[in-house]
Amino acid sequence: MQSNALNFVFGLTIGLVFSYVTISYMTGFHIPRPTQMRFVATGEPEMKLDSAGRIFLNHEDLERFGAIVHPVEFKDTHAHNDEDEEARRLEKEVRVLCWVMTSPQNLESKATHVRRTWARRCNKLLFISSVTNETFPTIGIDVPEGRDHLTAKTMKAFKYIFEHHMDDADWFMKADDDTYVILENMRYFLSGQNTNEAIYFGHHFKPLVKQGYFSGGAGYVLSKESLRRFGAHGNNASVCRQDGGAEDAEFGRCMEKLGVKVGNSTDKLGRSRFHCFDPDTHLTGNYPDWYYKYDAHGGKKGRESISDYAISFHYVPVAKMYALEFYIYHLRPYGLQSGKQELNHDRGN
Ligand SMILES: *[C@@H]1O[C@H](CO)[C@@H](O)[C@H](O)[C@H]1NC(C)=O
Ligand SMILES: *[C@@H]1O[C@H](CO)[C@@H](O)[C@H](O)[C@H]1NC(C)=O
Ligand SMILES: *[C@@H]1O[C@H](CO)[C@@H](O)[C@H](O)[C@H]1NC(C)=O
C-alpha cells in the first residue's frame, strides 16, 4: 500500500517532469532560473526531486505554462469526446456558489490562476478581499488584512452572500486561493444531500469544537438552510465571535451554536473527499505531527484512503493547479471509459 502510493507519486513526478521538458522542448520554453514558485508542493525529500531538476517558475512563465496546458474551456467542451451529459445535468441541478478568500497581494500571484483553472466551473464565483477591485473583480469587505482578521473576513463574506446571492445557488462553498476543487465531484456528492437540512461538509477536524469543525483551507460547503441560519444569527456577536481566533474553528463553533451539523462526507469505502493538504502529501502520508491530533479519521494515508471522487485539496501551488487540470481533465488512458463506475455506490447518502 505504502509502496504503491510511493510508486504512484514517483510516476506522477516523472510524468510531470517529462511533460514539462517536452513542452519546453517543443515551445522553446526554457527552464527558468529559480524565482518565486516551487513547482512541487510539499517536501518529500526521498523523492530526490532536486536531482531531477526542481523546477521554479516565475509569473510570466506561469502565464505561458497555463496557456499551454489548458487552453480548453469546460463550458464549451472537454478536450476529448468524453461523455459529459451527467456532469452538465448536475451543473444545472446542483448549483454551487464558490467564494474564494483572497487579498490584494494575492490577486495576480494566486487568485487569477484559481479563476483560470477549477473555479471556472462554479455556477457563481466571487473573490472576496479586503479591498474592492472593479477590474479583477473582487468584492472588498471592510476588514483589515492579516491572519488575525480571517474570522471577520469569513463572517462578513457569508453575510454578504446571504444578503446578495441566496437565490443564486443551492450550496455555498468557501475556499482559499490555494485550494483546488473538482466541482463535478462536489456536485455528485451533494446531489445525494438535502440543502434544506442544517448541515455543512468539509475536511473534519475534531478538537476545539464539540462536534468538530472543517478545515478552512480544504474548503467547506454550506447548505441553503445553514446559510439561512447564519444570515439570521451568525453576525450577532453574542452568538458567534466576529473576529480573532482561528477562522475555521470559530466558524465551526458558530455553526454548532446555530444548530448546523457537521456532515459525513467519507464514501462507503471510508475514503475521504475533502483534503487539507495537496494530493502528494495525502498519498505519501508525509504529515506534520499536529495533523494526527486534528484529523477526525486518524490521519489515513495512501491511494486507498482517498475517494475516486475526491472533491478538494489544499496547499496547491499555482503550477500544480495547472498540472491537476491537465491530469484530471485532459490526460486519458486510451480504451478506458471513466465516469460510470460505482454510481450510486460512492455518493454518500
Ligand atoms: C485590480 O486588478 C487588476 C486586474 O487583476 C490589477 O491589474 C490591478 O493591479 C488591481 N488593482 C489594485 C489597486 O490592486
Ligand atoms: C443576539 O443574541 C442574543 C442571545 O441569543 C439575543 O438575546 C439578542 O436579542 C440577539 N440580538 C439581535 C440583534 O438579534
Ligand atoms: C459516512 O458515510 C459513509 C457513506 O454513506 C458510510 O459508509 C459511513 O459509515 C459514514 N460514517 C459515519 C461515521 O457515519
UniProtKB/TrEMBL annotation:
It is a single-pass type II membrane protein. The chain crosses the membrane at residues 6-28. Its main location: membrane. The keyword Transmembrane applies. Its EC number is 2.4.1.122. It comes from the Eukaryota. GO terms for molecular function: glycoprotein-N-acetylgalactosamine 3-beta-galactosyltransferase activity; manganese ion binding; nucleotide binding. Residues 100-265 form the Fringe-like glycosyltransferase domain. It is an enzyme of class 2 (transferase). Pfam families: Fringe. InterPro entries: C1GALT1/C1GALT1_chp1 (IPR026050), Fringe-like_glycosylTrfase (IPR003378). Pathway: Protein modification; protein glycosylation. Belongs to the glycosyltransferase 31 family. Beta3-Gal-T subfamily. Glycosyltransferase that generates the core 1 O-glycan Gal-beta1-3GalNAc-alpha1-Ser/Thr (T antigen), which is a precursor for many extended O-glycans in glycoproteins. PANTHER family: BETA1,3-GALACTOSYLTRANSFERASE, GLYCOPROTEIN-N-ACETYLGALACTOSAMINE 3-BETA-GALACTOSYLTRANSFERASE 1-RELATED. Homodimer; disulfide-linked. This is Glycoprotein-N-acetylgalactosamine 3-beta-galactosyltransferase 1. It comes from Dreissena polymorpha.
